[in-house]
Design a protein that fits this description.
The protein is of the alpha+beta class. 43% of the residues lie in helices and 21% in strands. The protein has a four-stranded mixed beta sheet, with no helix packed on it. A three-stranded antiparallel beta sheet has the order 1-3-2. Helix 4 crosses helix 5.
């Protein structure tokens, strides 16, 4: 392939976004990414227990998501830095934006009783309660947004 032509097109999408998508190269990474997006902040052990995975698989999965910029690794500064139970993983702004875009583009809405049902993913900080909210669409239909998973 012609490198100059490739570079011309690759410049259209930031390297960081391409890297983030490349890190979602397995169903395991997708599943953990989706779990963090829909359920919010989790520790390494919570993710390990949720997926019944061995610690090495959990570590490599989370490392890939962190390297791709989709997930951030945070340390609870009030506790000891060496204690793995105090390390938390949470979606980054880029991870949230990517998931919202994929959700909007790829997940078709369902229609129930002439209402369009969308799944709206928002950051864990924005979730005040789990529930639904009716909104009017540009097409004159009532959409039901489900927040919090």
């Amino acid at each position: 392939m012609d490198q100059k032509v490739m570079e011309q097109y690759l410049r259209e999408v930031p390297f960081e976004m391409r890297l983030a998508i490349m890190e979602l190269k397995s169903d395991v990474r997708w599943a953990v990414y989706i779990a963090l997006m829909t359920e919010g902040i989790k520790t390494h052990s919570e993710i390990r227990d949720l997926f019944k995975a061995n610690p090495n698989t959990t570590t490599s999965t989370l490392t890939g998501l962190v390297d791709g910029g989709l997930v951030a690794r945070r340390i609870n500064k009030m506790e000891g830095l060496g204690d793995k139970r105090m390390v938390y993983y949470e979606p980054t702004n880029m991870g949230i934006r990517l998931f919202k875009a994929l959700d909007y583009i790829a997940v078709p809405p369902r229609t129930i009783n002439n209402r369009v049902l969308y799944r709206a993913i928002i950051s864990p900080e924005e979730i005040t309660e789990i529930g639904t909210k009716e909104v009017q669409t540009n097409h004159g239909k009532t959409a039901v947004l489900t927040t919090g998973g």
